[in-house]
Write a structure and sequence with these properties.
heterodimer; A: five-stranded antiparallel β-sheet; B: 297 residues; mainly alpha; 14 helices; 0% strand
Chain lengths: 377, 297
C-alpha cells in the first residue's frame, strides 16, 4: 500500500519535532528514515502508525485518509526498538495476539490461527521455539518474534523503530541481510528508522535524510551519496572537508589561495563553502595551477587506506585526505612533506550566517523522547 | 585431622568451598554476624509473637476456644472482616487508577497527587481518625445532611470502613507506581497497534505485567486493614458487640483483665498476619520462574 504524507506538523511543548513533512512512499518500497537523534525520524514513524497525534497535516494510506484513524484502525505492523514483547506470553501467544484480540466475527478459528502462527514462525526461522518465553530468547530472536507478531495482522505497512539498535554488530549484519530477503519475499511496504548511515544505505531502496524536523534529502543510496543536496547531508554521510571560498564572475576562488576551480554551473556569487570528501581529493603535480599546496602534519594507516592530515599553506586549515595505500615501491608520505592536492569532486553551498530564530525551542540537552514524555497529556 | 568436617557440622550456612576467598570473612566474624542477626530477630520478633500464643493457651485449649464463643468477640471478628472486605477492594480500584494515572499520563498537579497518596503514611492514625470526627461528628459540617439522608457515619460501621480505607490507601498505589513507571507504555502501545481494544490491552497486557505487585499490595493492604487500631479507635466509639473491631476488642478485654480472651483474639490476629506472609512466600516460591521472567533485563 502506498503512503502519502502531507505537511505533517508535530510539537512537543515548545519543541518543534516535525516541521511540515511531505513524503510519498511507493507500494512495496523499503524506505529508511535516517538522521541523528532529535531529527524527528522516530516521531515521523510514530505519526504514521498513529501513536503520536498530529498538530497538522495529513497521512494517507492509498485512498484512505488515515489522519483521523486510531492506532487500531490503521492496521500497521509496528516493531518497537526494545521489541515490547509480552513477557508473560509464549512466543506462540505473542504472535497470535493480534488475531486473538479480534472481535468474534472477524477472528479466525483456532486451527487457522495455529496454522498462521506456524507459517510465520517458519518465515522468521524460529520454528520449534513457540513454547519459549521472551526472557529465554536472544536479542535477534526477540526481534524476529516482534516482526512475526507485527506481520500476523497482515498490516498495511510495516514500521520498524531502530530495528537493529539493541543488537551486537555480528547479529546486526545477519539480521540486516535476512530482513532484506524477507522484504523481497513478502513485499510489504516497509519503513524503518535508523541513525546508522551504513545500515540505511545498504538496506533501503530509498533513504530519507532528516534533520531538526525537516527532510534534508530523499533519494537512492547513490543519489544521497553522490549528490548530497545540503551541507547537513554531506556532514552526516561522512566527514567532509569544508573550505571557505568565494564565487566571483563564475569562478571559484579558494580563500587565500590562487587556486581557481570551475563552479560547476549555478553557484551564487559571493561567499561559499566548498564541501569535498577526503577520498575526493587527488594528489597532483607541480604543473597543476589550481592545486592547493600544503604540508603533511599527520599520517595514519587504516587497513588499505592511508589518511593524511594536510595543513594548507594559504589558510592554515588542516584538511583530511584519504588515499589508497601506496605500493611499497612508490613514495611514502612522511610528516613534513610538501603536497599538492586538488578536489576532483566537490559541492558548493552559500555560506549562510546561522540565525538565532533557528534555535528557538531547541534544547540540545533534551532528547526527543524527553520532549515526548514531557508533553504527553 | 577431622577438623574441617567437625566445624562444618556446627556451621549451618557453610558457604561453597570454591567461593572467592576475598569475600570469605574469618569464621568468627561469620558466626558473630549470624548470631547477631538471629538473636535480634528472636528477641524482638519471635519472642513477643510466641508469648502471645503462650499467654492465650495458658489455661488450656478449652479456655482458649471458649474465648471465641463470646458473642462480642464474634461480633468484633465479623466487623473486622467486613471492614477489610470493603476497604481492600475499594483501595484496589483506587490504587490501580491512581498508579495508572500517574505512570501513564502527564498532567498538571501530578506531583501533588503523588504527595497526597503518601499522606495517610505520614499522618498519625489518631489524626486520621479525628478528621472523620470533625467531618461527621455531632458538630461536623457534613453531619446534618448525612444524618438526614444517609444515616450515622461516626460510631458505626461506615465510619470504621472510612477510617480503614484512609489508612490503607497508599499500600497498593505505592506498590504499583515504581513498577509501572519502570515498565513504561511500550507494551500497551504494541497491543493497541496489534488491534487490541483499551480493555483487552488492560486485561491481557497491563494486568499480567503488574499482577505480582498488585498481589503484594493487596496482601499488605489487607494485613493493615485488619490490624488498624489508632484511626479506627477514634471513630468507633467502642460500643461492645457493635463497633469494636478485633484490635479494639483486644484492648478492652485486656483492660478488663481477661487475659486469656485478650490473647486468644490477639493470637487469631497474629495468625491471620502469618497466613498472609505464608501465602506471599508460597506464591513467590511457586511462581519463581514467572517472577524472574517478568523482570526486565
Amino acid at each position: 500500500m502506498d503512503i502519502q504524507i502531507r505537511g505533517v506538523q508535530k510539537h512537543y511543548g515548545s519543541f518543534h519535532a516535525l516541521r511540515g513533512i511531505d513524503l510519498d512512499i511507493a507500494s512495496g518500497e523499503l524506505l529508511a528514515l535516517l538522521g541523528p537523534s532529535g531529527s524527528g525520524k522516530t516521531t515521523l514513524l510514530r505519526a504514521i502508525a498513529g501513536l503520536e497525534p498530529l498538530d497538522g497535516g495529513q497521512v494517507k494510506f492509498g485512498d484512505i485518509d488515515a489522519t483521523g484513524l486510531s492506532v487500531q484502525e490503521r492496521k500497521v505492523g509496528f516493531v518497537f526498538q526494545q521489541y515490547a514483547l509480552f513477557k508473560h506470553m509464549t512466543v506462540f501467544d505473542n504472535i497470535a495476539f493480534g488475531l486473538n484480540v479480534r472481535p468474534k466475527k472477524e477472528r479466525p478459528d483456532t486451527v487457522t490461527i495455529n496454522k498462521r502462527v506456524r507459517e510465520l514462525l517458519e518465515l522468521v526461522q524460529l520454528g520449534g521455539l513457540e513454547k519459549r518465553y521472551p526472557a529465554q530468547l536472544s536479542g535477534g530472536q526477540k526481534q524476529r518474534v516482534a516482526l512475526a507478531r507485527a506481520l500476523a495482522i497482515e498490516p498495511r505497512v510495516l514500521l520498524l523503530d531502530e530495528p537493529f539498535g539493541a543488537l551486537d554488530a555480528k547479529v546486526r549484519k545477519d539480521l540486516r541481510r535476512w530482513l532484506r530477503s524477507l522484504h523481497r519475499e513478502t513485499g510489504y511496504t516497509t519503513i524503518f528508522v535508523t541513525h546508522d548511515q551504513e545500515e540505511a544505505l545498504e538496506l533501503a531502496d530509498r533513504v530519507v535524510v532528516m534533520n531538526r524536523g525537516v527532510i534534508e534529502q530523499v533519494g537512492t543510496t547513490d543519489e544521497v551519496w553522490d549528490a548530497p543536496s545540503t551541507p547537513f547531508v554531506y556532514d552526516f554521510l561522512g566527514t567532509p572537508n569544508v573550505l571557505p571560498a568565494r564565487v566571483e564572475r563564475g569562478a571559484l576562488l579558494l580563500n587565500g589561495a590562487t587556486a581557481t576551480l570551475a563552479t560547476a554551473g549555478a553557484a551564487p556569487e559571493g561567499p561559499v563553502n566548498v564541501y569535498t570528501r577526503p577520498n575526493e581529493l587527488r594528489v597532483v603535480g607541480d604543473d597543476d595551477a589550481s592545486a592547493l599546496t600544503g604540508k603533511i602534519v599527520e599520517t595514519q594507516r587504516t587497513g588499505l587506506l592511508l589518511r593524511l592530515g594536510v595543513k594548507l599553506l594559504s589558510s592554515g586549515d588542516v584538511i583530511e585526505i584519504e588515499l589508497p595505500h601506496p605500493d611499497p615501491d612508490v613514495q611514502r608520505w612522511q610528516i613534513g612533506d610538501g603536497i599538492r592536492v586538488r578536489p576532483s569532486r566537490y559541492s558548493l553551498f552559500p555560506r549562510a550566517v546561522a540565525t538565532a530564530a533557528d534555535e528557538s525551542g531547541y534544547d540540545p540537552t533534551l532528547t526527543v523522547t524527553e520532549h515526548r514524555e514531557r508533553s504527553r497529556t | 585431622m577431622n577438623h574441617t568436617v567437625k566445624d562444618a557440622a556446627f556451621l549451618p550456612f557453610e558457604p561453597l568451598k570454591q567461593t572467592n576467598s576475598v569475600i570469605n570473612e574469618p569464621r568468627l566474624v561469620r558466626w558473630l554476624l549470624i548470631a547477631a542477626a538471629l538473636g535480634f530477630l528472636s528477641l524482638f520478633l519471635l519472642l513477643p509473637l510466641l508469648s502471645v500464643f503462650v499467654e492465650a493457651l495458658r489455661k488450656g485449649a478449652g479456655a482458649y476456644f471458649a474465648a471465641f464463643a463470646d458473642p462480642e468477640t464474634l461480633a468484633s471478628i465479623k466487623l473486622t472482616f467486613i471492614a477489610a472486605a470493603i476497604a481492600v477492594p475499594l483501595n484496589l480500584v483506587f490504587g490501580l487508577s491512581a498508579a495508572w494515572a500517574i505512570t501513564k499520563f502527564e498532567f498538571r498537579g501530578k506531583q501533588l497527587l503523588i504527595t497526597m497518596i503518601d499522606l495517610p503514611f505520614s499522618v498519625s492514625p489518631v489524626v486520621a481518625g479525628l478528621i472523620f470526627v470533625l467531618i461527621f461528628g455531632a458538630q461536623g459540617w457534613a453531619q446534618p445532611w448525612f444524618g438526614d439522608h444517609i444515616g450515622k457515619v461516626l460510631f458505626s460501621t461506615p465510619g470504621i470502613v472510612l477510617a480503614t480505607i484512609f489508612v490503607t490507601f497508599p499500600f497498593i498505589a505505592r506498590e504499583l507506581i515504581p513498577l509501572m513507571q519502570e515498565q513504561g507504555t511500550e507494551d500497551e502501545q504494541a497491543a493497541l497497534s496489534l488491534g487490541a481494544t483499551g480493555w483487552q490491552t488492560f486485561t491481557r497486557v497491563t494486568l499480567p505485567n503488574i499482577k505480582w505487585a498488585l498481589l503484594y499490595g493487596v496482601l499488605l493492604c489487607n494485613a493493615r486493614a485488619m490490624g488498624e487500631f489508632g484511626a479506627v479507635s477514634v471513630v468507633s466509639g467502642h460500643i461492645r458487640g457493635l463497633t469494636n473491631t478485633m484490635p479494639l476488642h483486644i484492648e478492652i478485654l485486656y483492660n478488663e483483665y481477661q487475659f486469656v480472651s485478650a490473647f486468644a483474639v490477639a493470637s487469631l490476629l497474629a495468625l491471620l498476619a502469618m497466613v498472609t506472609l505464608a501465602v506471599k512466600s508460597f506464591l513467590e516460591w511457586r511462581y519463581a520462574d514467572q517472577l524472574a521472567a517478568t523482570r526486565r533485563h
